[in-house]
Write a structure and sequence with these properties.
By secondary structure, the chain is mostly helical. It has helices at residues 3-19, 25-32, 36-47, 52-79, 86-177, 181-225, 240-278, 284-329, 333-374, 386-423. Keywords: Coiled coil.
């Protein structure tokens, strides 16, 4: 818009027309002192900026100036007796009204446009903030998940050390029973070594759990500082999903810390039992009952862990098959390629995770079986105390075999999927 130019044109037309009638200098003096040039320029300037208040003020200033000026001009014209210019005054008034009307439309449109731009900027800023928040939460979740994987390895080492301490204690008893004091002392030293390993792993697990909690807290605080408005995200926190995953892992790590602490306390107790055994003051039946309980617990924990792993791997094999079926039905090259890529990813995951889990299952099964065989004849399935514990250990050992079979089945499924994908080229 160029309202200053429009006013100048209207003024020139009026001046030219009235000049022919030779109006008095006094009348033309009033004509030239309108102030409209300044307010129309202000309107033009305001329309180029993003200031709603300035726009509204510029429009109001114009309306006031135009109304006041037109009334003054008409009054001056009558005082001069210049009735002949009445038609030109009417045209000038119409020009002023037209400028005012168009200025009003332009100002309203500009304000609406500014509001729309502001909303777009707000939405864009919210989207960027949402992405940043998700990135923070996702990073924390990935880091904490990495800590969980490291802790799983530490727990396995702790379990191995705990089993070694338990075995060494039984060896102390065997050596004592055979009258081999030297071997009994050596095995008691092995108990201490294993117990120290358990304690070291427990401390490491506790430190990792604390690190995970700290990472989670820092990430939550960083997102909180953003002061996200849930209304901008459909009423939901864009980072909540990742934080929920991270929080679940933190709680899992905290549980593992508690269990590791209990294992360390048990290992310390075994050290004391070994010392008592060297003195011949240990209750053998109570000691082997405790060993059976620990055996059943290790079997139960292993069964629970690898049942979960097998289910997850099986789910990934199913997803690989689903993506292969999507690729089979796809009519668009891009969609087919995307499904093949996703299916291939799951195939790789299944093979890697299944191979690792099978090795660990076999190691756990061998440890459980070996421990059971190491028990003396007094530990029998028919004993009312030992029997239920041994049966429980066997039940969970069978569960490990089932998990192993499920992993083999998942591997076979992805082999078929891979063969089908090759046919797609």
């Amino acid at each position: 818009m160029a309202f200053a130019s429009d006013w100048k044109s209207a003024k020139t037309a009026f001046e030219t027309a009235t000049g022919k009638k030779k109006p008095s200098a006094k009348f033309m003096g009033v004509f030239h002192k309108s102030g409209l040039e300044d307010v129309t320029k202000a309107l033009d300037t305001a329309l180029t900026k993003s200031d709603a208040k300035a726009l509204e003020k510029a429009l109001l200033d114009y309306v006031k100036s135009a109304t006041s000026y037109q009334a003054t001009l008409e009054k001056s014209a009558k005082a001069e007796g210049a009735a002949a210019i009445a038609a030109e005054l009417k045209k000038l008034g119409q020009a002023l009204d037209d400028i005012g009307r168009r200025a009003g439309v332009a100002v309203n449109e500009r304000i609406a446009e500014m509001r729309e731009e502001a909303e777009e900027e707000k939405a864009k800023a919210a989207e960027e903030q949402g992405k940043a928040a998700r990135a923070i939460a996702d990073k924390a979740a990935v880091q904490i998940d990495g800590l969980l994987k490291a802790t799983n390895a530490d727990v396995k080492l702790l379990d191995q050390a705990a089993a070694a301490a338990d075995l060494a204690l039984r060896n102390v008893l065997d050596a004592q029973g055979a009258g081999n004091a030297k071997e009994a002392k050596a095995q008691a030293a092995a108990v201490q070594t294993a117990a120290k390993a358990v304690e070291a792993q427990a401390k490491k697990i506790a430190a990792t759990a604390a690190q995970a909690a700290k990472l989670f807290s820092q990430a939550k605080a960083a997102v909180a500082k953003m002061k996200l408005d849930p209304k901008q995200y459909g009423g939901r926190d864009p980072a909540q999903g990742a934080f929920d995953r991270a929080d679940a892992i933190v709680m899992k790590l905290d549980q593992m810390k508690e269990e590791a602490g209990e294992a360390a306390a048990e290992a310390a107790g075994i050290v004391k039992e070994a010392a008592q055994a060297l003195k011949g003051a240990l209750d053998l039946r109570a000691t082997y009952l405790a060993s059976c309980r620990k055996l059943a617990k290790r079997a139960r924990d292993a069964d629970s862990l690898y049942d979960s792993v097998a289910r997850d791997v099986g789910g990934q094999a199913d997803r690989a098959q689903q993506e292969q079926m999507v690729a089979d039905d796809a009519t668009e090259d891009d969609k087919r390629a995307a499904s093949i890529k996703t299916a291939t990813f799951y195939i790789t995951q299944v093979r890697q995770q299944a191979a690792q889990a099978k090795k660990e299952i076999l190691a756990a099964a061998n440890e459980i079986t070996g421990t059971r065989k190491s028990f003396p004849a007094m530990v029998t399935d028919k004993d009312p105390d030992f029997g239920p514990l041994l049966a429980e250990a066997k039940q969970f050992l069978d569960g490990l075999k089932e998990s192993h079979a499920a992993l083999v089945k998942a591997e076979a499924k992805v082999d078929k999927v891979e063969t089908a994908l090759k046919k797609l080229g």
